[in-house]
Amino acid sequence: MIKTLKPYLKGYGKYALICMLAMITEAVLEMMLPFMMSKIVDVGVANKDLSYVLKIGGIMLLMSLISLIAGAIGSRFSSVAGMGFGSQLRKALFDKIQTFSFSNIDHFSTASLVTRSTADVNNIQNMFMMLNRMAIRSPIMFFTAMILATSINAELVMIFLVVVPILGIALFMIVKLSFPRFEAMLYKYDGLNASTQENLTAIRVVKAFVRSAYEKAKFKLSNDALMEASIKAEKIIIFNMPVMQLSTYTCVILILWFGGGLVMDGKMLTGELMSFITYINQILMSMMMLSMIFVNVLISSASLKRIVEVLDEDIDIKDSESSSAFPIQNGSIEFKNVSFSYKNDVHSLVLENINVKIAAGETIGIIGGTGSSKSTFVQLIPRLYDVTEGSVLIDGRNVKDIQVETLRNSVSMVLQKNVLFSGTILENLRWGDQEATKEQCIEACKVANAHSFIMDFPDGYDTYIEQGGTNVSGGQKQRLCIARALLKHPKILILDDSTSAVDTATDASIRKELKENLKGMTTIIIAQRISSVQDADRIFVFDEGRINDIGTHEELLERNPIYQEVYHSQMKGVVSE
Amino acid sequence: MSKKPYNPFQTLMRVMSYMAKNKLQLLLVVILVILCSGAQVAGNYYLKPIINDYIAPMIGVAKENRVYDGLIFVLTQLIIIYVVGVLSGYAYKYIMMNLSNRALNEMRKDLFNKMQDLPIKYYDTHQHGDIMSCYTNDIDTIREAMSEGFTAVVSSAVSIVGNFTMMLILSPFLTLFIIAMSFLMVLIVKKFGSLSSKYFQKQQKSMGRVNGYIEEMFEGVKVVKVFNHEEKVCEDFEKLNEELRDAAIEANTYASIIMPIMGNLSYVTYAVIASLGAFQVINGMLDIGSLASFLQYTRSFSMPITNLSQQFNSIFRALAGAERIFALIDEKSEVNDGKVTLVNVKEENGKLVECEERTGHWAWKHPHGDTFELVPLQGDVRFHDVVFGYEENKVILKHINLFAKPGQKIAFVGSTGAGKTTITNLINRFYDVNHGQITYDGIDIKLIRKEDLRRSLAMVLQDTHLFTTTVRENIRYGKLDATDEEVIAAAKLANAHSFIKHLPQGYDTVISGDGANLSQGQRQLLAIARAAIADPPVLILDEATSSIDTRTEALIQDGMDRLMMGRTVFVIAHRLSTVRNSNAILVLEHGEIIERGNHEELLAQKGKYYELCTGITELS
């Protein structure tokens, strides 16, 4: 565990070390104080030696001041080390996730990646700080106190030797018994919150079906189950304090009895007895801390596991040494015996044995039902996924031999599930080309039919887009995404259902602009609407992971039943122009 | 989040009332806490008599001459005190565990039950995240304060008072020094407390930015990759991350530095007291036993001070959370004063008679004074001059008149914001009209009990909202007592049966996280099945097929037609092929019906509908 996390401590190791040294200093000094006090009583008071009292008192004062400074330094440096470590870990996760391929991303859900990078990192960070401060301090406190107590009176230490293991076992049992119950409680707690959240988002359904009584009863069940689980766990945890008290009190009584006897015998001095009683607290407290550390390590080990899963994820798409950075020249595409499965398993293929060539500068339309794998097909071109079998060639070069950055700079793709980022429209557009001038951006927006609505916004191109693009309509968002993709000046442009929320007239205008302004660019358009693809050079009809037919609009309308079916269902109710 | 509560005392009393239905229980807890901390305070005091009276006099006395009776007696007293302390410690923890868990349970229940009774308007005007944080953040802070805070305040107070009293008894002179140190400590706690909360807020803000950025970039990570933007994004993140680190270091330093400072200040005090005390003992102003006791108190007097100040913070945070929870619980419930109810009827001698058993025939029971009238449920819905706006001076619907006779299909077409969904919101009384009247089978819907009105309507919404349970239970949501056969029949009607059969566990497949393992189209089919099983006379389809591609829609058209047969249907649709065969199509714009008629009539008018059909105008 420490091994996996070690690299992220880089640069902060010295702070962690200083913190530990400070903690050791503090612990040792703290433990020395009662010992010194016994000297005051037994030597100073007994001999009525005032100067001795002042001397030892002065040393004690000095020691406690040093201990105070050490404690403060420890706090400061453990914060620096802990937060530094946490931030490097968070950064490492973030960077790692940015290198994920699409299949790596699909492997985790977005929500789980977010939790891992936020809540889980915080847990680890807190555990680290606690370990940094306590893991050394508690044992040092324990042993120093034991050694000093032994040096005062070895016989009396026997009491500790009996009580400490018993307390240790008791604390261990409490942790061991309560931890699984605690986990069960947390599980129920998450479940309750998840179903409440679900009720909240589906409140219209609940009300429309008059199910509030049903929902209340359902909630009562899980709410009561949560309470029971929580009581079951706490029932054990509440033994912590009484067990601690019982051990302390037992030691006090035993030490007073036996220690008292020793004092009477003259084998021990009064001051020594007094300091002995002080050590009871410190020894037992340090054991309590150790058990707390144990619990925390247990709790955060789940977080650690989730973080390591991400850090250890194998990236399946990356450049090799032989990858070429030579740019794409023409933009011709060829699929050679391509099969694909998301699970990389030849038995669950979603694309089967695709063989097709697309010439540079050609416009291809793709039509097919949900689940016919048309999106999968185009995602293989910029190597968002790797083929399971066969190969994809661009300009006759296997995409696997081209550097990923070079490849994706030449292949611009507007994803079906697209997002805009918080920032101005101009900033969003410049995702396509960071050096683009405003004129170039306007140019692209004109092609994407976005310029006019942007100018209708009071702030024009400086209009701020909210997170997730919630303040623009679906059609506007799609047009901005197209403009953004055009700014890359790609050789190949892929539009994956990118104009579904745009009206047919605008849709037609975008296609016209593309044809006129970007000659020589290979264009692939996936669409639901026949009108979006009917003037393409060729149309691919996809059905259940295969290309069912290829042809022009007229040819397909004449011979392909799937195409005919789609065409007729869409033409129903639509007036021929 | 750490806003101060507005009315802490009142809120505190209300939280207390949740905790102790029985006031005696709380009183018992207070007594037990006092006993438990009192035992500790008293225990420390016993050092004095034990050393002074029983040990010191025996020093040097030969073993056979020693008298142990006194020591045994006083140690027995101490044992009894300690046993009482330990037992009451366990007892109050046990009682508090039950009280606080029950209180939290009760609070969550009230919260949830209230949520079910709130009008839709509340949900449309409040952030769901804020409502959820009542269940998570707010309940958590209350849990912390309840299980620790309440008793800790009492026990700290007892310890502080007890310690000072005992110290005063042992040595007023030394206590003076302790009081001076206490003032210093309180000052330090306050100073660091305010510094720490200042930096803590800074840290929270910074954390919010980092988390927001993480969320946004993970949500859009595929876009980042398509644009080769990884490096830029990582750079931006680094800046935010470093900002957070710096704020967090400060916040944490101040929060964690209090403990060592306070702890070590008590050691400073310990050193001073040991010397001063020894000086007094040498001069005969103090006995050695008192010094021993006093030193024990010196070691334990700083803890409760630190504790108390920290607990006050946590209690105030909890009260602020409780206030938010109570604000929700105190919201006004949906008004439901309708008198007209829906009852099962059968025909006897050509007359309708109310009956208990399910006959499949329903009627509205409309009371008129002592008598009542039974109106058969048919599904005749009419709007009479309806005016409505969500906000007072923003009218959404202007003087809408329309009628739907039983079995008719009425379609609404128009751009976003034209008021289509608003009309459906009014029919099932998610909102009430400002002006005019809506009637159902001739009865003003305001007179109908809401449950019964909604039972007579079924809705299929654009956002399908399935629940995390089996497919079977999701369909059954429309009719809780439906048999398995009925569920399958409904699924077949909606053309969902074939894909359900192919799911790993068929009808028993658990749908995860709002249906993530189903396609959008499949989810809509399930929602349609859910409406079908409810079998109401009126059906509202709000963009119900928008996510189903045209090929699949053609496949389920059959099922949809069968579902709509014999029912009054209101359809809102994006796709014009869906609305084509309606009895009437209403074109809405800016809250007004600008065109109405059937498909052919509207095309002939060459108006807005014609433009929509030919794709001249954008539909969104």
Main pleated-sheet profile of chain A: 6 strands, mixed
> What order do the strands of the largest sheet of chain B run in, or round the barrel if closed?
10-11-12-7-13-14
| Helix segment tally of chain B | 21
Please give the radius of gyration of chain A in angstroms. 36 Å
Number of DSSP helical runs of chain A: 20
Q: Widest sheet of chain A: strand order?
A: 6-9-10-3-11-12
Give the helix/strand class of chain B. Answer: alpha/beta
The oligomeric state of the chains shown is heterodimer
Annotation, overall tally of beta strands of chain B? 14
Total strands of chain A: 12
CATH class of the largest domain in chain A: Mainly Alpha
Total separate domains of chain B: 4
Largest interface: A-B, 157 and 154 residues
Query: How big is the Rg of chain B?
Result: 37 Å
Distance between the termini of chain B: 38 Å
CATH topology of the largest domain in chain A: ABC transporter transmembrane region fold
Task: Compute the average pLDDT of chain B.
Answer: 86
